[in-house]
Amino acid sequence: MTENHPLSAGWREHPRYPDPLIEVLDPRFQKYVVFSAAVERLYTGCRWSEGPVWFGDGRYLLWSDIPNNRILKWEEETAEVSIYRKPTNFGNGHTRDRQGRLITCEHGGRVTRTEYDGSLSVIMDSWQGKPLNSPNDVVVKSDGSIWFTDPPFGLLGNYEGNKREAELPQATYRVDGETLEATLVTDDVLGPNGLAFSPDEKILYLVESRGQPYRKILTFDVATDGRSLSNKRVFIDAGPGGTPDGFRVDVDGNLWCGWGMGNAELDGVLIFAPDGDRIGRIRLPERCANVCFGGPKRNRLFMAASQSLYALYVNTQGVAGG
């Protein structure tokens, strides 16, 4: 990259500020918009981008390109992109544990941890003697517990996983960060997908990708001991054309949710207030599968969208554990 080739070159002409791709749908969103920040395309050339995760200590971002069975690495200082790992057992969602290690959901049927020396440890690959389906997305709670979803999406073909019949119900699990003892926390969500905790960790948000008749974002109350869920309810009914996928929560409790596919006019990121109102939108030319907050102050939103990786500085910060 040189001064003659800025990050967004080859995608669109540089817009006037404020960027028209950032839409304020409710006055509450205005304070999160940085006037002189624009949506940037950092990379393109994937087959299906997923699972961005920020490494501030190394000043880089990792994300998955599932069909190509690789994890890519974007360097903040140079904007260079390289292959971090290949093959990945069809790695999908990522996060970091409270010790800074990479936690990966693999569509090939396991959840792994990358140790400091680069070796892999298996966090979980089976439940009651049967193999997991295709772990999808993951978050780590402040007590160190690892929460992940296990839908069957990677079993449906050989493009993003290995085709086979599911042996377990679609479920969401909690794994103790120290003992690795696993608990099934819910198996009554159809196509469990993206998940995240509220800033106080009293609520778990969970996408139901196969909800009837439409996709939904559900909420659950988290028990005071942090080990179980109750009071399942609908937070967002996406309606026709609505396809929530992965999301993260900021320090004010707003959900920044990857969206699209069902309706190209909605491709990008939708932002919901804690009361469920749609307050903002970031328009992208591709469906956005997942997001994370990063940068030195966790105020840069990274968006994994179909074939590309995008970013936008915002006037808020992401909560830890996502």
What would you say this structure looks like, in words?
- This protein is mainly beta.
- It has a single domain (23-313), classed as TolB, C-terminal domain (Neuraminidase, 6 Propeller).
- The protein is built from no helices and 27 strands.
- The chain is globular.
What is the CATH C-level name? Answer: Mainly Beta
Tally the helices.
0
Termini gap:
30 Å
Q: Give the overall pLDDT as a whole number.
A: 94
Percentage of residues assigned to helices? under 10%
> How much β-strand is present in the residues?
35-45%
Counting helices, strands and paired strands, the structural category is mainly beta
- The CATH topology is what? Neuraminidase
The helix-strand sequence is EEEEEEEEEEEEEEEEEEEEEEEEEEE
Give me the side-by-side strand order of the main sheet.
1-24-23-22-21
In total, how many beta strands? 27
Low-confidence stretches: none
Number of spatially distinct domains: 1
Write the layout of secondary structure elements.
Blueprint: E1 22-24, E2 40-44, E3 49-55, E4 60-65, E5 70-75, E6 81-85, E7 91-96, E8 102-106, E9 110-114, E10 120-124, E11 126-127, E12 130-131, E13 138-140, E14 146-150, E15 171-175, E16 182-186, E17 192-197, E18 203-208, E19 216-222, E20 229-237, E21 247-249, E22 255-259, E23 268-272, E24 278-283, E25 290-294, E26 300-305, E27 308-313
Antiparallel strand pairs: 1-24, 2-27, 3-4, 4-5, 5-6, 7-8, 8-9, 9-10, 11-12, 13-14, 14-15, 15-16, 17-18, 18-19, 19-20, 21-22, 22-23, 23-24, 25-26, 26-27
